[in-house]
Amino acid sequence: MASQIARALGWGGSVNETFASSIARARAFTDCARSLYRDGFLSECHGYMCKALSLHLEAWSDAADNADAEPVGLRASRERAFEALARAGYRRIDRLRAAAEAIDSPPGAEVGCPNSVDFDWIWTEVERLAPFSARQALTPRARKLLRLRRGLLAAFSVALALVLAFRIWGRPRAQASAAYADTFSAENAVDGLEATEWLLPDSTAGWVDVILPFARTVKRVRLINAHNRISADRAARAVRVTAFTKQGSSVSVEGAFKHFSEDRSVLDLDLAARDVTRIRVEVLSHFRTGGGLAEVELQ
């Protein structure tokens, strides 16, 4: 698109180089303005932003002037710049025109320092126009690489959004009959972290439900036992696992951990069930003070 615009404006190689040079100077003025702003020199800062906007407009006007090489005044020069920008696909020409008028200081005022009410307009238009002009000054190869980078970034962003959406909406939820404390809630049994545990109150049987976001087939349930690493006094012993569909309970299987362990203790239970929407794990008995589980994994 940029090459078509260049041909329409009659840009040649030398004009493209001149255009790129002017845009680079405008960018340098903008960088100076930002530095002055950080140091608190507001008046000088705004003056540099005005010069940056003027340079952008002059660059576009000079490129358009190359087509007929007719000398023009400031107002006509800016109109040619606006026309060239419009042909290049730049939007908000009216806002840009208003910002350009704000550059013109009233009689007796310091050149390049508009009234404070116009500062935001000028800054906004410089920030919007700068990347647009910079893209037009790129070589065809650079534009191709830029499009490739943008495509890769867009693809990465979409993939990241899908992963986040799945982690938020695609992961199972959990609820339980009871918990020893808020820090040992049912969600700890499905968070993928063995260090966090769902613990039951003292000497109490109970259950934890794993609620699936969509119906699926479950072939096996892996239970990773708790041990309460703070006191090493809680773990499940006998358990019952039941699969539920929308129609009700489907398959149930029982099992038991062999002994209490402060290390990783795993119990795999085969559970061939289809269209499962919920899995309930009941802790029927426990070791020591109470029961609990570190993780419930569905396979």
What number of domains? 2
Which stretches are poorly predicted, pLDDT < 50 over at least 5 residues?
A: 1-15, 106-114
Residues in β-strands, percent: 15-25%
| Biggest sheet architecture | 7 strands, antiparallel
The residue fraction in helices comes out at: 40-55%
Distance between the termini: 52 Å
CATH topology of the largest domain, which one? Four Helix Bundle (Hemerythrin (Met), subunit A)
Task: Indicate the overall shape.
Answer: elongated
Descriptive report:
By secondary structure, this protein is of the alpha+beta class. 44% of the residues lie in helices and 25% in strands. It folds into 2 domains: 137 residues, Four Helix Bundle (Hemerythrin (Met), subunit A), CATH 1.20.120; 126 residues, Sandwich (Jelly Rolls), CATH 2.60.120.260. The chain is elongated. β5 and β6 form a beta hairpin. α2 runs antiparallel to α3, α3 packs across α6 and α5 packs across α6. The longest helix has 30 residues. It contains 7 helices and 9 strands, in the order αααααααβββββββββ. Strands 1, 2, 3, 5, 6, 7 and 9 form a 7-stranded antiparallel β-sheet that branches. The chain has a two-stranded antiparallel sheet with strand order 4-8.
